[in-house]
Amino acid sequence: MPQLPLIEPNTALFLDFDGTLADLAPRPELVQVEPELVGTLRLLYQRLDGALAVISGRPIVELDHFLRPLQLPAAGIHGAEFRTDGGMVSQTPAPALEPLIPHLEALVHAYPALRLERKSVAVAIHYRQAPELAGLVDAAVTDVLRHAVGLEALPGKMVVEIKPAGVDKGDAIAAFMKSAPFCDRTPLFAGDDMTDEPGFAAVRKLGGLGVLVGRRETVAGVSVEGPAALRSWLHRSARALDQSARAAGQPGAVPHEAEPGREGAPRHNPHPTAS
């Protein structure tokens, strides 16, 4: 694959969180954010005039928690949640998840190494602590979805999620690209998981670039070894953009941040998903 170029001033930047901005952890709630990263994201937001969004499988409230005090434009739960710059979170209507929950809880009770995560409009079963149970989880999800309406399975890294049908990261990116400050820019999306492939396809269709974090078959145009390499590229790009803007005397946009003392903390105890 070709080498990854630095971010250009006319880029619309979209970034996955787990496995991309942050390293994966044994349990998703143990993920740590590199201290320098928040400052770099703030600077990138400023120098891209606000054209930066996080596109994640996590709920937006959890993204705010990990990136506090920043509250960036974001798509959560693969696009089922959506927030523009500093705006309210809009949400895809919740499908009928409740009838599925007892069956999934019974599975997790029978296999304690599994973990059930309930979100606002989705539910996920994590098997990172027991990868040998992947087939069992896949079969159980297929079974509970047999008569479900408006729901679909989304496999990821050591997780299978049940989410609203027809929602993915590619659609979220396309929605952002229809309005300012993202429109009329060249999109770039970085992600690591199979759940990010629709995002890679979307930016490619729009004449942009997909960046795979890791190594595997992908429709992304370039790849880097891992999250550390991706963060190093973000740091270098932010410094280069800032130097150019300062030399030209250009002001920058100011990202929305949580009020002091609140800092975007979750409204519940997070059980975040790694996607």
UniProtKB/TrEMBL annotation:
Compositional bias per record (Basic and acidic residues), positions renumbered to this chain: 256-266
Gene3D superfamilies registered for this protein in UniProt: HAD superfamily/HAD-like (3.40.50.1000), Trehalose-6-phosphate phosphatase related protein, domain 2 (3.30.70.1020)
Source superkingdom: Bacteria
EC assignment: 3.1.3.12
Reactions catalysed: alpha,alpha-trehalose 6-phosphate + H2O = alpha,alpha-trehalose + phosphate
Keywords: Hydrolase, Magnesium, Metal-binding
The keyword Hydrolase is annotated on this UniProt entry: yes
Pathway noted in the entry: Glycan biosynthesis; trehalose biosynthesis
GO biological process: trehalose biosynthetic process
UniProt cofactor(s): Mg(2+)
GO molecular function, one term: trehalose-phosphatase activity
Disordered, as annotated region: 241-275
A Pfam family of this chain: Trehalose_PPase
NCBIfam families xrefs: HAD-SF-IIB, T6PP
Function according to Swiss-Prot or TrEMBL: Removes the phosphate from trehalose 6-phosphate to produce free trehalose.
Stated family: Belongs to the trehalose phosphatase family.
Record protein name field: Trehalose 6-phosphate phosphatase
